[in-house]
């Protein structure tokens, strides 16, 4: 597959990064069609549109191209996709009472699977696999946060497990003695960072930024649950 170009293009040099927007016609049409369908089912249309705008930015902006050069950029993209866009989208959709622990296990399995070497490399060799990664991660995260929102009283263990597995992933990534991904052995050099340094930065992003975002989302859900519980007798 030497002649294959990944969806986000070849790894950009730092000087060209800001020019690397992804205006792929199929991507734009797909985003618009998905927004058009989703808005019909949304309970909060403005929040849904905001969440979908963030999703679009993550794939249209230079962050998409940056993820070809830096593993830390790919991890940052996934943090924003699963811990910002997904809970925002879940809060805009009707409540679905789904089993939180089962969804937490599915999300954990997908998150680990897509970031280990062989599946990760496969996303760089096939558009279909690339979108399977992102759609499955985003879908699982949206359903998980939707379950947290719909049944917060049953979600404590699932939330604790999710936080723990994300932390474990971050620690494993940060403390790994060698780089995981051969693709990035040369792509990080123009940015003045070694492949291992890039991977350690990715782990730190997940550890600190990812952890804080996850706690913020849980705090908001807990506040909403306590507020709803306090107002129940008055209804």
Question: What does this protein look like?
Answer:
This protein is mainly α and 235 residues long. The chain has one domain (14-229). It is built from 10 helices and no strands. It has helices at residues 25-41, 45-60, 63-69, 71-92, 100-115, 117-123, 127-150, 156-175, 184-187, 195-231. Helix 4 (71-92) crosses helix 7 (127-150). It starts with 24 loop residues before the first helix and ends with a helix. The relative contact order is 0.12.
Terminal CA distance reads 62 Å
Structural class category: mainly alpha
Average pLDDT metric: 93
Rg of Cα set: 18 Å
Contiguous helical run count: 10
Shape: globular
Question: Summary?
Answer:
The protein has 235 residues and is an all-alpha fold. The protein has helices at 25-41, 45-60, 63-69, 71-92, 100-115, 117-123, 127-150, 156-175, 184-187, 195-231.
Question: Which key terms come to mind for this protein?
Answer:
single chain, 235 residues, 10 helices, globular
List strands and helices in order, with pairings:
Layout: H1 25-41, H2 45-60, H3 63-69, H4 71-92, H5 100-115, H6 117-123, H7 127-150, H8 156-175, H9 184-187, H10 195-231
